[in-house]
Specification:
By secondary structure, the chain is of the alpha/beta class. The chain is built from nine helices and eleven strands. The strands form two sheets. The protein has an eight-stranded parallel barrel with strand order 1-2-3-5-8-9-10-11, surrounded by six helices. Strands 6-7 form a two-stranded antiparallel ribbon. Helix 7 packs parallel to helix 8. The longest helix has 17 residues.
Length: 274
C-alpha cells in the first residue's frame, strides 16, 4: 500500500518547498493539497466537519503555484490536488495548468477533483449549486478533449468552444489520472470519468461495502485512495485488508519545526506498512 499526505498549505504554516522536500526525504509517495479560492463572510453552508469552519479554509495557497514550487524542488513525489474545485474553475485555464504542471514535474500529477460543499463560494464564481454536478462532468470532458486532441472542440450545456489549439499536452498519456472525490453520490462520476476514487476519511468498516458498490456500478476494479486517513494502526490494517491503493495521512497545518516533528512520527508509522 502506498502512503502519502494530505494537508492545507497556507500562509501561516510550513512553506510548500520545505514541506515537499521533507516528504520526499521521508519516503512518502505523494502530497495532496486542498483548495479554496476564498470563503464568503456570510457563509450559510454548514461545515461538513461540524462546528466552526477552521481558519485554514480561509488561507489556502493556490494549489498549482504550490505544487509547481514543490515539483521543482523534488524528483519523485507525486503532486496531487485534493481536491480541485471544478465548479469554480474555467476548464480551458485549468487544463493548461494541469498540463503545464505535468510537463515541468516530469509526469507526476494526480488530478484530484470534486464538486465542493460551500454554496456561497461557488455562487461567487457564477455557478448555480443545483447544477454543479452536471457542470463538473462537462468541464472534465472538455478538459480531456483539450489534453488529447490536436484540434480540441467541445459543445455542451455549460462549456462551448469551436476548434482550438491548446498546448502543452500532458506528459502522462492520455492525461494525468483523475481521482474523483466525494461520497456515494459521486460514484457515477467515478465510473464514467475517473481513474480512481478519492474517499474522504471513510473508516474501513464502512469503506469495504462502499468499494463493492462502486465496483459493481463501474464494472471494473476502481483503485481507491483514502484522503485524510487516521494514523491509527488498526485503521491502517483495515485499509490493507481491503486492498486500498493508497492512504493519505492528514497533516495539520503548523509552522515548519512542528510539522517536521509530526512528519517524523508519521514516517515511522508508514514504514511499517509499505
Amino acid at each position: 500500500m502506498k502512503i502519502g499526505v494530505s494537508t492545507f498549505i497556507t500562509d501561516q504554516g510550513i512553506g510548500p518547498v520545505p514541506l515537499g522536500i521533507a516528504l520526499e526525504e521521508r519516503s512518502f509517495d505523494s502530497l495532496f493539497i486542498a483548495e479554496h479560492t476564498h470563503i464568503p463572510a456570510d457563509r450559510q453552508s454548514p461545515y461538513p466537519g461540524g462546528g466552526e469552519l477552521p481558519e485554514i479554509y480561509y488561507r489556502t495557497l493556490d494549489p498549482f503555484v504550490s505544487l509547481t514550487a514543490i515539483g521543482v524542488a523534488t524528483e519523485r513525489l507525486l503532486l496531487g490536488t485534493g481536491i480541485a474545485l471544478i465548479p469554480e474553475r474555467d476548464p480551458i485555464v485549468t487544463a493548461k495548468e494541469v498540463a503545464s504542471l505535468d510537463l515541468v514535474s516530469g509526469g507526476r500529477v494526480i488530478f484530484g477533483i470534486g464538486v465542493g460543499w460551500n454554496r456561497e463560494e461557488m455562487r461567487n464564481h457564477g455557478t448555480d449549486p443545483a447544477t454543479r454536478g452536471r457542470l463538473t462532468d462537462e468541464r472534465l470532458l472538455a478538459m480531456r478533449e483539450l489534453w488529447t486532441a490536436e484540434r480540441a472542440e467541445f459543445h455542451g450545456e455549460f462549456v462551448n468552444f469551436d476548434p482550438v489549439y491548446a498546448w502543452p499536452k500532458p506528459v502522462q498519456r492520455p492525461h494525468p489520472p483523475i481521482y474523483v472525490g466525494g461520497g456515494e453520490g459521486a460514484f457515477r462520476r467515478v465510473a464514467r470519468l475517473g481513474d480512481a476514487w478519492l474517499a474522504n476519511s471513510v473508516p474501513p468498516e464502512e469503506l469495504g461495502p462502499q468499494i463493492e458498490r462502486l465496483r459493481a456500478l463501474a464494472d471494473r476494479e476502481v483503485p481507491v485512495t483514502v484522503y485524510a486517513a487516521p494514523d491509527a494502526p488498526e485503521q491502517i490494517e483495515g485499509y490493507l485488508r481491503l486492498g486500498v491503493e493508497r492512504v493519505l495521512f492528514y497533516l495539520p497545518t503548523m509552522p515548519e519545526r512542528e510539522t517536521l516533528k509530526h512528519l517524523d512520527r508519521l514516517a515511522e508509522l508508514a514504514a511499517r506498512y509499505r
